[in-house]
Specification:
Blueprint lengths: L3 H13 L3 H20 L4 E6 L6 E10 L11 E3 H7 L8 E6 L7 H27 L6 E10 L2 E5 L4 E4 L15 E11 L4 E6 L3 H11 L1 H4 L3 E9 L3 E8 L6 H6 L4 H9 L4 E6 L4 H8 L5 E8 L4 E6 L4 H5 L4 H10 L2 E6 H15 L15 H9 L5 H5 L3 H5 L6 H60 L3 H30 L1
Helix pairs in contact: 1-2, 2-4, 5-8, 9-11
Amino acid sequence: MASELYNIIEGVSREKGIDPRIVVSAVEDAIVVATRKYYKTQENLRAVLDKDSGKINAYAVKAIVEAPEQVEDPNLQVTVEQARKLDPSAEAGGELLIPKVTEGILGRIAAQLAKQVIFQKVREAERDTVYNEYIGHVNEVVNATVKRIEGPDVILDLGKAEARMGRKEQSRLESFAVGERIRVVIVRVEKAVKGPGVIASRSAPELVQHLFQSEVPEIYDGTVVIRAIAREAGERTKIAVLSKDKDVDAVGACVGMKGMRVQSIIRELRGEKIDIIEYHEDPVTFAEKALQPAKVSRVTIVDAAEKHLEVVVDDTQLSLAIGKKGQNVRLAAKLLGWKIDIKSEEEKRQEVEQQMSALVTQTVTPLEIVTGLGEGLVEKLKAAGVNTVESLADMTPEQLEAIEGIGPKTVEKISIAVNNYFASLDGGEAVAAAETEGTEEAATEAALSLESATEGSVEADVLVSEAEPPEPAAEEGAGLSSEESATEEAATEEAPEDKQS
């Protein structure tokens, strides 16, 4: 029959959820500490609890050696001969237990010390038990009861342990009362000095996932899969779902008839807004869906390796796409796992214009190319930060005179040299333009001549074709024309003769 002391130990073990042997070991260690305190000895001490009688016996433990010369420390070792005086069955290599009287001699201080040791051992065992119990339930949803409220933190009763829910782990829309039953997510378990720290949360995305699994049978049986969740507790949640069955609408299944399913989840989250989005493998299409309710004009992948997207929206849709304090685009970026840059059409147009203007090469002419500027003057200008002819031409006489070593005469010299340089450039451009113009005029005249020649030949062909009679008429005409020409020749010959006569 177990003693009263052992029955008490078993009761404490059940209450704390620890093994009774751990409590027995704690009691024995406490007696060892009290005995050592009383006897002020360095011997190895051991305490043994008799389960039946409830008596705790303390012993000094010494190792048994064969010969006296093998004894290095009399407090820890004893020879076989000496050991057999106390225990005839003692053998070398064994242990000798020498009883220590504890009953009636351990005072109040020793008892208090033993009590502290027992409490410490029990707390350590309890801490290990709780840690091992909940470390395997991280990211799982459990039911808890609000036990008490300590400032901004809420202390929850999980049954076997307490959990703490800090302010960051709470939704701003929620407030709790003592005794209220709530569902929380175990986010982590810490092995602290004061005890195991179970940290619970109602702001974790896993809570929303669990609620959808509870409310939507298609998610529970795997027909609809939750691919991603982005949440800002108390504000808005975006959830991407995908259907494995082509006949099942993923978004419709989550919403339910007349929104009954999603409304139940919203009530559990105290009015938090939920956007349910259909998942797409294509990041461009997925980004368009994730940024709803804003209408996206176009999405461009800037860098696929770095997961960087650029989204362009209409000017009227920019504020809606960004959301309150950037919430909509922030949640969309979390949902996709991509970096998103949102720009309006006007901003994109200005950016393109800037890029185009940057592509225009700007002429940069060194000062050394300008004749009329000596080496010393060039060095003075460069020392003042003027390195190009263009920047020099933009300076006023007052700015030039402000440079050390440059006076009015030097300014006039610089002005003449720069003007001559630009005049030479203008002259060269005029000559080139004239040459180009002359070449163009010559080409134009040649084209016109060719065109007129072509037109003339075409007109001649047309006239010839119109004047050509039928073949018999042509022969008669040819005979007449020959007779006429003969008569004309005779008349011509007679005319000089008349003149001579």
